[in-house]
Amino acid sequence: MPHAHSLTIVIVAKDEDKNIAECVASASFADEVLVLDSGSRDRTVALAEAAGATVMRTDWPGYGPQVARGFRLAKSEWVLSLDADERISPALREELLGAIRTGTHDGWRIPRLSEFCGRFIHHGGWRPDHTLRLGRRELADFSGHFLHAHMTVNGRVGTLRESIVHYSYPDLHDVLEKLDRYSSGHARDMQAAGKRGGLRRALLHGLAAFLRTYLLRRGFLDGRHGLMLAIYNAEYSYYKYLKLGFLQRPPMRPSVPEAAAAEVRR
Known about the structure:
By secondary structure, the chain is of the alpha/beta class. It has two domains: about 160 residues, Spore Coat Polysaccharide Biosynthesis Protein SpsA, Chain A (Alpha-Beta Complex), CATH 3.90.550; about 80 residues, no CATH class. Strands 3-2-1-4-9-6-12 form a seven-stranded mixed β-sheet, sandwiched between helices. A four-stranded mixed β-sheet has the order 5-13-7-8. The chain is globular and about 75 Å long.
Protein backbone atom coordinates (compact mmCIF):
# COMPACT_ATOMS: atom_id res chain seq x y z
CA MET A 1 0.00 0.00 0.00
CA PRO A 2 1.39 3.44 -0.90
CA HIS A 3 1.68 5.90 1.97
CA ALA A 4 -0.91 8.67 2.13
CA HIS A 5 1.39 11.44 0.90
CA SER A 6 3.18 9.57 -1.88
CA LEU A 7 3.30 11.13 -5.35
CA THR A 8 3.79 9.78 -8.88
CA ILE A 9 4.47 12.21 -11.71
CA VAL A 10 3.36 10.86 -15.09
CA ILE A 11 5.04 12.20 -18.25
CA VAL A 12 3.93 11.19 -21.75
CA ALA A 13 6.64 11.56 -24.38
CA LYS A 14 7.78 10.83 -27.91
CA ASP A 15 10.99 12.16 -29.47
CA GLU A 16 11.56 14.60 -26.61
CA ASP A 17 15.32 14.33 -26.14
CA LYS A 18 15.57 18.13 -26.05
CA ASN A 19 13.21 18.33 -23.08
CA ILE A 20 12.98 15.07 -21.18
CA ALA A 21 16.08 15.28 -18.98
CA GLU A 22 15.19 18.71 -17.56
CA CYS A 23 11.55 17.70 -17.18
CA VAL A 24 12.41 14.55 -15.21
CA ALA A 25 14.94 16.46 -13.12
CA SER A 26 12.29 19.00 -12.12
CA ALA A 27 10.01 16.11 -11.09
CA SER A 28 12.66 14.09 -9.25
CA PHE A 29 11.34 15.05 -5.80
CA ALA A 30 8.36 12.72 -6.38
CA ASP A 31 8.30 9.17 -5.05
CA GLU A 32 7.99 7.92 -8.63
CA VAL A 33 8.56 9.53 -12.04
CA LEU A 34 6.86 7.46 -14.74
CA VAL A 35 7.55 8.20 -18.40
CA LEU A 36 5.28 6.62 -21.01
CA ASP A 37 7.19 6.61 -24.28
CA SER A 38 5.24 5.94 -27.47
CA GLY A 39 7.97 4.91 -29.87
CA SER A 40 10.69 7.54 -29.65
CA ARG A 41 13.37 7.30 -32.33
CA ASP A 42 15.78 9.62 -30.55
CA ARG A 43 17.47 9.43 -27.11
CA THR A 44 14.32 10.13 -25.06
CA VAL A 45 14.24 6.73 -23.34
CA ALA A 46 17.95 6.68 -22.47
CA LEU A 47 17.92 10.25 -21.15
CA ALA A 48 14.77 9.66 -19.08
CA GLU A 49 16.23 6.55 -17.49
CA ALA A 50 19.55 8.29 -16.83
CA ALA A 51 17.64 11.09 -15.07
CA GLY A 52 16.00 8.53 -12.76
CA ALA A 53 12.60 7.92 -14.36
CA THR A 54 10.88 4.59 -14.84
CA VAL A 55 10.13 4.25 -18.56
CA MET A 56 7.24 2.23 -20.01
CA ARG A 57 7.31 1.69 -23.79
CA THR A 58 3.77 1.86 -25.18
CA ASP A 59 1.70 2.55 -28.28
CA TRP A 60 -0.07 5.90 -28.81
CA PRO A 61 -3.82 5.67 -28.18
CA GLY A 62 -4.21 9.46 -27.89
CA TYR A 63 -3.29 11.93 -25.16
CA GLY A 64 -6.17 11.27 -22.79
CA PRO A 65 -5.99 7.46 -22.89
CA GLN A 66 -2.20 7.61 -22.55
CA VAL A 67 -2.26 9.72 -19.39
CA ALA A 68 -5.09 7.58 -17.98
CA ARG A 69 -2.87 4.55 -18.60
CA GLY A 70 -0.10 6.24 -16.63
CA PHE A 71 -2.48 6.94 -13.77
CA ARG A 72 -3.43 3.25 -13.65
CA LEU A 73 0.24 2.21 -13.59
CA ALA A 74 1.17 4.69 -10.85
CA LYS A 75 2.10 3.25 -7.47
CA SER A 76 1.43 6.34 -5.34
CA GLU A 77 -1.61 7.76 -3.59
CA TRP A 78 -1.37 11.01 -5.57
CA VAL A 79 -0.70 11.47 -9.29
CA LEU A 80 0.34 14.54 -11.27
CA SER A 81 0.34 14.80 -15.06
CA LEU A 82 3.28 16.71 -16.57
CA ASP A 83 4.17 17.28 -20.23
CA ALA A 84 7.74 16.88 -21.44
CA ASP A 85 7.99 20.59 -22.28
CA GLU A 86 6.92 21.61 -18.77
CA ARG A 87 8.96 22.16 -15.60
CA ILE A 88 8.15 22.21 -11.89
CA SER A 89 9.87 25.14 -10.19
CA PRO A 90 11.24 24.81 -6.64
CA ALA A 91 8.45 27.08 -5.37
CA LEU A 92 5.77 24.93 -7.02
CA ARG A 93 7.41 21.79 -5.68
CA GLU A 94 7.05 23.03 -2.10
CA GLU A 95 3.47 24.11 -2.68
CA LEU A 96 2.59 20.72 -4.22
CA LEU A 97 4.05 18.80 -1.30
CA GLY A 98 2.27 21.07 1.15
CA ALA A 99 -1.06 20.62 -0.62
CA ILE A 100 -0.67 16.83 -0.51
CA ARG A 101 0.19 16.89 3.18
CA THR A 102 -2.82 18.99 4.16
CA GLY A 103 -5.31 16.59 2.56
CA THR A 104 -7.97 19.31 2.39
CA HIS A 105 -8.72 18.62 -1.29
CA ASP A 106 -8.81 15.64 -3.63
CA GLY A 107 -7.41 17.50 -6.64
CA TRP A 108 -5.60 20.72 -7.46
CA ARG A 109 -5.62 23.11 -10.39
CA ILE A 110 -2.23 24.61 -11.24
CA PRO A 111 -1.61 27.82 -13.24
CA ARG A 112 0.82 27.75 -16.17
CA LEU A 113 3.31 30.31 -17.43
CA SER A 114 3.81 29.58 -21.14
CA GLU A 115 6.47 30.64 -23.63
CA PHE A 116 5.80 31.73 -27.21
CA CYS A 117 8.86 32.21 -29.45
CA GLY A 118 11.21 33.26 -26.67
CA ARG A 119 8.83 35.28 -24.49
CA PHE A 120 6.51 34.32 -21.64
CA ILE A 121 2.94 35.38 -22.41
CA HIS A 122 0.81 37.11 -19.75
CA HIS A 123 -2.34 37.98 -21.72
CA GLY A 124 -4.41 36.72 -24.65
CA GLY A 125 -6.01 33.97 -22.55
CA TRP A 126 -2.70 32.31 -21.72
CA ARG A 127 -2.46 33.51 -18.15
CA PRO A 128 -3.12 32.22 -15.52
CA ASP A 129 -4.32 29.20 -17.59
CA HIS A 130 -5.39 27.05 -14.62
CA THR A 131 -5.31 23.36 -15.46
CA LEU A 132 -6.31 20.41 -13.26
CA ARG A 133 -3.19 18.25 -12.99
CA LEU A 134 -2.91 16.80 -9.47
CA GLY A 135 -5.32 14.36 -7.87
CA ARG A 136 -5.76 11.35 -5.67
CA ARG A 137 -5.16 8.34 -7.91
CA GLU A 138 -8.37 6.53 -7.00
CA LEU A 139 -10.48 9.63 -7.67
CA ALA A 140 -8.73 10.98 -10.79
CA ASP A 141 -9.19 10.19 -14.47
CA PHE A 142 -8.59 11.71 -17.91
CA SER A 143 -11.07 12.22 -20.73
CA GLY A 144 -10.58 10.13 -23.85
CA HIS A 145 -9.79 13.01 -26.22
CA PHE A 146 -7.05 12.39 -28.76
CA LEU A 147 -5.65 15.89 -28.14
CA HIS A 148 -5.63 18.14 -25.07
CA ALA A 149 -7.57 15.78 -22.84
CA HIS A 150 -9.00 17.00 -19.55
CA MET A 151 -8.40 15.60 -16.10
CA THR A 152 -11.35 14.97 -13.79
CA VAL A 153 -11.40 14.44 -10.03
CA ASN A 154 -14.37 12.98 -8.20
CA GLY A 155 -14.00 15.15 -5.13
CA ARG A 156 -13.11 18.60 -3.83
CA VAL A 157 -10.76 20.63 -6.05
CA GLY A 158 -8.60 23.60 -5.05
CA THR A 159 -6.25 26.00 -6.86
CA LEU A 160 -2.53 26.51 -6.25
CA ARG A 161 -0.67 29.81 -6.67
CA GLU A 162 2.71 28.79 -8.12
CA SER A 163 2.93 27.99 -11.84
CA ILE A 164 4.08 25.16 -14.05
CA VAL A 165 6.63 26.65 -16.46
CA HIS A 166 5.64 25.66 -19.99
CA TYR A 167 8.18 25.91 -22.82
CA SER A 168 5.42 25.40 -25.33
CA TYR A 169 6.57 27.14 -28.53
CA PRO A 170 10.32 27.85 -28.44
CA ASP A 171 10.60 28.95 -32.09
CA LEU A 172 8.64 29.39 -35.32
CA HIS A 173 9.52 25.92 -36.55
CA ASP A 174 7.78 24.49 -33.49
CA VAL A 175 4.83 26.86 -33.97
CA LEU A 176 4.22 25.64 -37.53
CA GLU A 177 4.72 21.97 -36.67
CA LYS A 178 2.27 22.14 -33.78
CA LEU A 179 -0.20 24.19 -35.81
CA ASP A 180 -0.52 21.29 -38.25
CA ARG A 181 -0.42 18.48 -35.68
CA TYR A 182 -2.71 20.08 -33.11
CA SER A 183 -5.31 21.26 -35.63
CA SER A 184 -5.48 17.73 -37.06
CA GLY A 185 -5.90 16.17 -33.63
CA HIS A 186 -8.52 18.71 -32.57
CA ALA A 187 -10.46 18.12 -35.78
CA ARG A 188 -10.61 14.43 -34.89
CA ASP A 189 -11.94 15.23 -31.42
CA MET A 190 -14.56 17.62 -32.85
CA GLN A 191 -15.66 14.99 -35.34
CA ALA A 192 -16.14 12.51 -32.49
CA ALA A 193 -18.18 15.14 -30.64
CA GLY A 194 -20.51 15.61 -33.62
CA LYS A 195 -19.43 19.16 -34.50
CA ARG A 196 -19.57 20.51 -38.05
CA GLY A 197 -16.73 22.01 -40.08
CA GLY A 198 -16.28 23.66 -43.46
CA LEU A 199 -14.85 26.79 -45.04
CA ARG A 200 -17.50 29.22 -43.75
CA ARG A 201 -17.16 28.00 -40.18
CA ALA A 202 -13.38 28.03 -40.51
CA LEU A 203 -13.36 31.69 -41.59
CA LEU A 204 -15.78 32.81 -38.87
CA HIS A 205 -14.05 30.92 -36.07
CA GLY A 206 -10.63 32.09 -37.24
CA LEU A 207 -11.71 35.74 -37.16
CA ALA A 208 -13.36 35.28 -33.77
CA ALA A 209 -10.22 33.66 -32.36
CA PHE A 210 -8.09 36.60 -33.47
CA LEU A 211 -10.44 39.23 -31.98
CA ARG A 212 -10.85 37.26 -28.76
CA THR A 213 -7.09 36.79 -28.27
CA TYR A 214 -5.86 40.22 -29.34
CA LEU A 215 -8.65 42.52 -28.15
CA LEU A 216 -11.00 40.89 -25.63
CA ARG A 217 -8.20 39.10 -23.78
CA ARG A 218 -5.78 42.01 -24.26
CA GLY A 219 -3.13 40.15 -26.20
CA PHE A 220 -1.92 43.51 -27.52
CA LEU A 221 -0.33 44.09 -24.10
CA ASP A 222 2.26 41.42 -24.99
CA GLY A 223 3.47 43.52 -27.92
CA ARG A 224 4.44 41.86 -31.16
CA HIS A 225 4.40 38.44 -29.49
CA GLY A 226 0.78 39.06 -28.56
CA LEU A 227 0.00 39.83 -32.19
CA MET A 228 1.87 36.71 -33.32
CA LEU A 229 -0.11 34.62 -30.84
CA ALA A 230 -3.43 36.10 -32.00
CA ILE A 231 -2.57 35.24 -35.61
CA TYR A 232 -1.55 31.74 -34.54
CA ASN A 233 -4.83 31.21 -32.68
CA ALA A 234 -6.75 32.45 -35.74
CA GLU A 235 -4.87 30.03 -38.01
CA TYR A 236 -5.30 27.19 -35.56
CA SER A 237 -9.06 27.71 -35.37
CA TYR A 238 -9.32 28.16 -39.15
CA TYR A 239 -7.43 24.97 -39.97
CA LYS A 240 -9.13 22.75 -37.41
CA TYR A 241 -12.59 23.65 -38.79
CA LEU A 242 -11.35 23.31 -42.36
CA LYS A 243 -9.83 19.90 -41.62
CA LEU A 244 -13.01 18.87 -39.85
CA GLY A 245 -14.95 19.71 -43.00
CA PHE A 246 -12.70 17.46 -45.07
CA LEU A 247 -13.00 14.66 -42.52
CA GLN A 248 -16.78 14.82 -42.81
CA ARG A 249 -16.82 15.16 -46.58
CA PRO A 250 -13.68 13.74 -48.18
CA PRO A 251 -12.73 15.68 -51.31
CA MET A 252 -13.76 14.13 -54.62
CA ARG A 253 -11.07 13.44 -57.18
CA PRO A 254 -11.54 16.21 -59.78
CA SER A 255 -12.78 15.11 -63.16
CA VAL A 256 -10.38 15.57 -66.07
CA PRO A 257 -11.54 18.25 -68.51
CA GLU A 258 -12.49 16.84 -71.90
CA ALA A 259 -9.63 18.56 -73.77
CA ALA A 260 -7.10 17.36 -71.21
CA ALA A 261 -8.54 13.83 -71.36
CA ALA A 262 -8.13 13.80 -75.14
CA GLU A 263 -4.52 14.90 -74.74
CA VAL A 264 -3.93 12.09 -72.23
CA ARG A 265 -5.42 9.51 -74.64
CA ARG A 266 -3.04 10.65 -77.40
